Structures are given as structure tokens and as C-alpha cells.
């Protein structure tokens, strides 16, 4: 990568740090640091939601899905949109009933500290693992750039660790300085950059295809690349109508209705109505965005078929190879910055939400002595550094993975989010279920999802449905284990939100 491309990437990173520094000055307390003073416009919340769920796994792996297959991945986006509508209707009101920072504080009101701590702990662990994989995937591009630029000898054993540190530190710095305000507004910047980079790459790929766009459509249609629906009933396949629409609906209800990373954004909005509108609109944008990334993969397939020189690569490496080896000067820098933007938007959100959950659900309840807001703010920033280091550690261990990272990352996300969704459903819709019954439901949910994954090899979009259904059913069956908790004023308000 030459001087111009390197300058573009460096400029992007500097802009993120400067933005984080400026926005960090406005955070006066924990609500300001973690919720941006609940004064963010709906359009920025919408873009932040989209940018957060668009990680390096989406940017690099989804084109590989269409390269070796078709557009059936879009069935997930349909399920995601339905799931968002249900979250806005049934779960969103509960989050605006109380002055909370961590979503799992609601569970303490309903079931006590044990259920809240377990749910928050599951979120923290799986978020760190999943986003460590996303950090690894983005670092693969940095690794190739370091090697091809001659800064590090090809095959050097430190190349990937250095790439991981570069990505991890860049994200950690602006999140540390600016908190949630920096995360949201850098998300807006990153969204514009990665969408621009993806569109430019798509246009350039079309330019290499005989006949341009019409040639692309003709060849891709003939190869059935644009096929979106697959009504095959097979629990082992992830991209069918049933897994995508039904499983994807429950997965999205879990990831967007019971996940601290998203709920933190809703609470940063000016009102519940604006948060709901932003959430639903984001589903439409995600559908179009998935179509763009799948279109890139299909275009790469047509391009290689026309050239008679198909790439002997799979999954994540297909788009990476094109980016590094084919983009002209200037465009390469922009697309690399776009890739970093897609990765950093998710990673920064993960750092902020994990820090908020650990602080509110673990450290503050265990504190024996009163502490000032300034003291807790310092702790919050230290936790940001801690989770940044943990994600870098996961990324380093991920170097031995052989499968597509998007499948690993999404499987981890769906493994426990359905269980947490089930607990929220128990708390909101089943007042007779008490603490012990809820804990029993969580244990049975974990066992059911583990059996689905390791015993029956069920596709990952089903995990959220299996987990949430098991928790709700077994939680209700186990009501005899303890007397229902007497509803408090706060828990009554939560139930009334339905």
C-alpha cells in the first residue's frame, strides 16, 4: 500500500481519535459516559444500530457466501426486520420505565441479583468471544498490508499479533476517551465510509465484467445467484426460509431486545418513540446492505468466471484477496478504511456495553464504600482497556480457525442471547415465575442449545428459538420450586408495559 492509501487509512484513524477526544469532554457522569445524556437524534441511533451489527464479518464474509452460493442469506434479513418490530412493540417500553444503564438491572427488580448476574455474565463472555473473532477477521487485512508493504517479512510469526494490536488499540483509544457519544457519532462516520467503500468496490468489479451491469445480471441470473428463497426443511442448513425468517426473527429479538449493546443505544435516544422508529428503520437499511454485500460476492464470481481464472479461495479470503490485489491507488486506502470502519463500529460498541454491564451488574453492587461519579468514571475507562485486551487475546487464539468467521461469530451470539430473551419474557409476561424457576429455565436453556449444537448439529439461526422456548417452558413448569416473588412497584410497572 502506497503513501496515498496509507495516508487515507491513517487520516481515518486520527479522525476517530479526535472525535472521541472532543466528545469525551461532555461526559460528566456515568449516564453521560454510557448513554450520551439520552439526547441523541433518532437518525443517528438508526445508523449506529446498523453500523454496530455490520462488523468485519459482514463486510468480508457475506460476499463469500454469495460467491459460493446465492442470495438465500437475505432470508435472515427478513426475519431480522420482523424481530425488530416485535422488540419495538413488546420489549422497548420496559426499558424506558426505569432509570437504568444496564438492561439486566430489570431482571434484578423481577428475579433478584442471582438471575441478573448470570444473564449479564453470559452477555459479557459471549460478547467478548464473538467480537474477538470479528477483531481477528479485520486484522487479517492489516496483516496482508503489513506483509505486502514490506514493513514485515512475509511469514513472520509476529505479523498477525501486530495487526491485532493495531486494530485493538485504535478502537480502544477513542472508546476510552469518548464513551457512548464517541461510539455513536464515530458509528455515523464509519457507516458513511464503509458504505462508500463497498459501493466503489462493487462498481469497479462491474467494470471488469464484459457487458458491465447488464452482463453481471445476465450471468448471475443464469447461475441462479439471485435466488433468495429456499423452502427446504432441513434443520442443519442455516439459510432456508424457516431458519432465516423464523429462526432469524427470534435471533434478532434476542440480539436487539435482550442485548446490552443495542439497549444501550435505545436508552441514548431522546424518547421511546424515537428509539422504536430508529430500530425498525435500521431493519430496512440492513436488508439493503446485505443485498449490497451479496451483490459484491456474486459480481466477483461472474468476474472470475468471465476471466477463466477463478480464485481457489473460500469464505472470508475471497473479498480480502480482491481488495488487496486489485484496487487502484486511493481506492485501496478508502476500502481498507471502510473495512476498519465496519470492524471498529462493532468493537467500540462491545467495549462500551461490556464495561457498562460489568460496572453496573457486578462492581457497583459489590462496592462496600460510597464512591464519587468521578471515581466510577475512571473505573469505567479502565474496564474499556480490560475488555480491549481480552478481545485481542481471543483474536490471537482465533488464528487457528478454519471455518468462515461469520458463522462462528453469529453462532456464539445466538448461543446464549435466546436464553436471555427467554428470561426477559418470563419476567415480563409470567408473573408467577420466581427466581428459582427462572434459574432452572436458564440451565435447561443452556442444556438444550448445547444439545442442538453439539449433539444434533442444528444450524445456528435456530439457537435463539430453541434457547428462549426452552427457558419459557421449563421456567413455567418449575414454578413449584419457589413461591412467586411478590411484585414490587417497579416490577408492576414493567409488567404493565405489555
> Are there runs of 5+ residues with pLDDT below 50, and where?
484-498
Describe the largest sheet. Answer: none
Strand content: under 5%
Mean pLDDT, nearest integer? 87
Tally of domains: 1
Order of helices and strands: HHHHHHHHHHHHHHHHHHH
Radius of gyration: 22 Å
Oligomer: single chain
Quantity of strands, as a count: 0
Fold-level CATH name = Sodium/glucose cotransporter
Relevant CATH superfamily: Sodium/glucose cotransporter
What shape does the CA trace take?
A: globular
- From the coordinates shown, what is the CATH architecture? Up-down Bundle
Distance from N terminus to C terminus (CA atoms, Å) equals 55 Å
Task: Note down, in words, how this protein is organized.
There is one protein chain. The protein has a single domain, classed as Sodium/glucose cotransporter. α4 (56-68) crosses α14 (331-366), α7 (113-148) runs antiparallel to α14 (331-366) and α10 (241-257) crosses α16 (405-429). It has 498 residues and is an all-alpha fold. The chain has 19 helices and no strands. The model is unreliable at 484-498 (pLDDT under 50). 76% of the residues lie in helices and 0% in strands. The relative contact order is 0.19. The protein has helices at 3-24, 30-35, 42-53, 56-68, 74-95, 105-111, 113-148, 159-207, 212-222, 241-257, 260-266, 272-307, 317-326, 331-366, 373-397, 405-429, 435-455, 463-477, 489-496.
Amino acid at each position: 500500500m502506497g503513501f496515498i492509501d496509507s495516508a487515507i487509512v491513517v487520516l481515518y484513524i486520527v479522525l476517530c481519535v479526535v472525535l472521541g477526544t472532543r466528545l469525551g469532554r461532555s461526559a460528566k457522569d456515568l449516564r453521560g459516559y454510557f448513554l450520551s445524556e439520552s439526547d441523541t437524534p433518532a437518525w443517528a441511533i438508526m445508523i449506529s444500530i446498523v453500523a454496530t451489527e455490520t462488523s468485519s464479518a459482514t463486510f468480508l464474509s457475506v460476499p463469500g457466501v454469495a460467491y459460493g452460493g446465492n442470495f438465500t442469506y437475505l432470508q435472515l434479513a427478513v426475519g431480522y426486520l420482523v424481530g425488530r418490530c416485535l422488540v419495538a412493540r413488546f420489549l422497548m417500553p420496559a426499558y424506558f420505565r426505569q432509570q437504568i444503564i444496564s438492561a439486566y438491572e430489570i431482571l434484578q427488580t423481577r428475579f433478584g441479583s442471582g438471575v441478573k448476574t448470570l444473564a449479564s455474565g453470559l452477555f459479557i463472555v459471549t460478547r467478548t468471544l464473538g467480537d474477538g473473532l470479528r477483531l481477528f477477521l479485520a486484522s487479517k487485512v492489516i496483516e496482508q498490508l503489513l506483509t505486502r508493504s514490506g514493513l514485515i517479512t512475509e511469514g513472520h510469526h509476529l505479523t498477525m499479533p501486530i495487526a491485532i494490536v493495531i486494530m485493538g488499540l485504535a478502537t480502544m483509544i477513542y472508546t476510552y476517551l469518548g464513551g457512548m457519544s464517541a461510539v455513536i457519532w464515530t458509528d455515523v462516520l464509519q457507516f458513511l465510509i464503509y458504505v462508500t467503500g463497498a459501493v466503489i468496490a462493487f462498481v469497479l468489479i462491474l467494470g471488469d465484467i464484459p457487458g458491465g451491469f447488464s452482463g453481471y445480471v445476465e450471468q448471475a441470473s443464469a447461475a441462479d445467484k439471485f435466488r433468495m428463497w429456499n423452502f427446504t426443511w432441513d434443520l442443519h442448513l442455516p439459510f432456508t426460509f424457516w431458519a432465516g425468517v423464523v429462526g432469524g426473527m427470534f435471533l434478532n429479538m434476542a440480539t436487539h431486545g435482550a442485548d446490552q449493546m443495542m439497549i444501550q443505544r435505545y436508552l441514548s435516544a431522546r424518547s421511546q418513540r424515537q428509539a422504536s422508529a430508529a430500530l425498525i428503520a435500521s431493519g430496512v437499511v440492513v436488508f439493503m446492505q446485505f443485498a449490497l454485500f451479496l451483490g459484491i460476492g456474486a459480481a466477483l464470481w461472474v468476474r472470475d468466471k468471465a476471466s477463466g481464472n477463478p480464485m481457489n479461495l473460500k469464505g472470508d479470503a475471497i473479498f480480502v484477496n480482491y481488495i488487496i490485489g486489485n484496487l487502484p491507488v486511493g481506492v485501496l486506502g478508502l476500502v481498507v478504511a471502510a473495512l476498519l470502519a465496519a470492524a471498529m463500529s462493532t468493537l467500540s460498541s462491545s467495549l462500551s456495553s461490556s464495561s457498562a454491564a460489568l460496572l453496573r451488574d457486578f462492581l457497583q453492587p459489590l462496592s462496600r464504600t460510597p464512591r464519587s461519579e468521578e471515581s466510577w468514571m475512571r473505573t469505567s475507562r479502565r474496564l474499556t482497556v480490560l475488555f480491549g485486551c481480552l478481545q485481542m487475546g481471543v483474536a490471537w487464539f482465533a488464528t487457528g480457525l478454519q471455518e468462515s468467521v461469520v458463522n462462528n461469530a453469529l453462532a456464539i451470539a445466538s448461543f446464549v442471547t435466546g436464553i436471555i430473551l427467554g428470561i426477559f419474557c418470563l419476567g415480563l409476561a409470567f408473573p408467577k415465575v420466581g427466581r428459582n424457576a427462572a434459574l432452572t429455565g436458564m440451565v435447561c436453556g443452556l442444556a438444550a442449545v448445547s444439545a442442538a449444537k453439539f449433539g444434533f448439529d442444528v444450524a445456528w439461526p435456530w439457537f435463539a428459538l430453541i434457547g428462549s422456548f426452552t427457558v419459557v417452558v421449563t421456567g413455567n413448569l418449575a414454578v413449584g420450586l419457589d413461591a412467586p416473588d411478590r411484585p414490587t412497584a417497579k416490577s408492576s410497572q414493567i409488567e404493565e408495559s405489555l
